[in-house]
Every structure is written in C-alpha cells, then in structure tokens.
Design a protein that fits this description.
The protein has about 240 residues and is an all-alpha fold. The protein is built from 7 helices and no strands. It has one domain: Four Helix Bundle (Hemerythrin (Met), subunit A) (Up-down Bundle), CATH 1.20.120. The longest helix is centred in the first third of the chain and has 74 residues.
Length: about 240
C-alpha cells in the first residue's frame, strides 16, 4: 500500500524536475546530488521500516493478549485454591470452636476425653492435607509461610488433645508396656493442665488462618491490578 502510493509520486517528481532543467550540468540535481541521494536513502529506509514497525506493534499486542489470558487463568486458579483450602480449615475449626464454647458456657468446662480423641484424629488429617498442599508449592512465598503457621498451630492443638485423652485412651499397664505410677500421675496432671489451654490453641489456628486468608487476598488483588493495567495498555494499542 505504501509503495503503491510512493512510487507514482516519485515518478511525478522526476518528470517535474526534468522539465524544470534540474538535471542539467549546472542544475539543482547536479549541484546537490549527494544531499539528494542521502534524502532518498532515508526515505527508502523509512518506507522499509513502516511495515516492520506495524508488524512489531501487532506482535506486541498479541503477546500482551496472550499474557493477559494466562494471568486471568492464574487468578481464577488461585481464587479456587483459596476457597478449597480455607473451606477445609473452616470445616475443622468452626465445629471445634462451637463445641468448646458450649462446654464452657453450658457445661462444667471440662473437655470430654472421647471428643478430644476425635479432634486429635481430625487435626492429624487436616495437618496431612495441608502439608500435601504445601508440597505442591503453587502459591507465592508469603502464602506458603502463613500456611506453615496454620500447620504448626494445628499440630499444637493436636498435641493438646492427645494429652487430654491419653490416660483415658490407654491403659497404665498392657501387654506391650507398663507405665510407672509416677509417670502415670504426671500424664494425668498434664491432661488436666491441657484442658484450659485447648481453646487458646484453637484460637491460634483461627488467627493463623485469618493471616493466610489475608495473604491470599493481597496476592489476588495484586494480580487483578496487573490485569487492569494490561487491559488499559491493550486498549491503547488497539485504538
């Protein structure tokens, strides 16, 4: 398109110049032939660059569009992971918190050892699930660090539950062990001391989960801001 317009224009200019005597021995072209040659060289370079520049612009737009599509998929993926992971933790903390509250407000404040045994098993399964998710390393470092804090708090809660139910779930003397009276009395005392701390341990899990939620949300906000910036750049490129 550009060459189709430029070539006839150059031909017309040559006809005008010849009619005006510019090609004579002492004419304009003869005196300034070096300068004219440089001008034509620059013009040829510009004509050659225009299609290349357009092609580069098109490639830049295509690359930006592809990156935007990729980033949009990443946003959808992290939102889905956040929902599944936090839902898994909430399924553990909310019933446990409700039970502890009811025991303290409407019961005698004691922790049922059978319930503590069940919570130990649930906490152990949750910790395993969270560790398996962490091993995939799908999320930014900040998210992983807060997830590690949730795991640590969950394991502390699990250990506290074990201390509470241990002497009810085990015999002092059995076929494979015989615990001395002094050690058995210590285990009973540790279980009693653990009961008032169980609510605080669960609160630590909840607090660590809130920080994990915030870390996810910050990452999602950053990614969405990048998407909006890409959208603005692509809009300018297309216009």
């Amino acid at each position: 398109m550009t060459m189709a317009l430029v070539c006839p224009a150059l031909g017309l200019m040559m006809m005008i110049a010849q009619a005006a005597g510019w090609f004579a021995h002492d004419g304009f072209v003869y005196r300034y032939q070096t300068l004219i040659g440089a001008v034509f060289a620059i013009l040829a370079a510009v004509i050659a660059v225009v299609p290349v520049w357009r092609q580069l612009t098109s490639m830049r737009i295509q690359t930006g569009a592809l990156y935007r599509q990729f980033l949009s998929g990443q946003v959808d993926a992290i939102v889905a992971r956040r929902k599944r992971l936090l839902g898994r933790i909430d399924d553990f903390t909310e019933p446990a918190g409700r039970r502890l509250y009811e025991d303290q407000e409407f019961g005698d404040g004691r922790v049922n050892p059978h319930w503590a045994f069940e919570q130990e098993q649930r906490a152990d399964r949750l910790a395993d699930d969270l560790r398996a998710y962490l091993d995939l390393r799908r999320d930014p470092v900040e998210v992983d660090e807060h997830l590690e804090a949730v795991i640590a708090a969950t394991l502390a809660f699990e250990a506290r539950c074990r201390a509470i139910h241990f002497t009810d779930s085990h015999e002092q003397s059995d076929d494979d062990h015989d615990i001395p009276d002094e050690d058995w009395a210590r285990l009973i005392a540790e279980g009693l001391e653990a009961e008032p701390e169980l609510s605080a341990d669960l609160a630590s899990v909840t607090l660590a989960t809130l920080k994990l939620r915030d870390a996810f949300d910050r990452e999602i906000v950053t990614m969405r801001q990048t998407l909006r910036t890409l959208d603005r750049e692509l809009t300018r490129s297309w216009s």
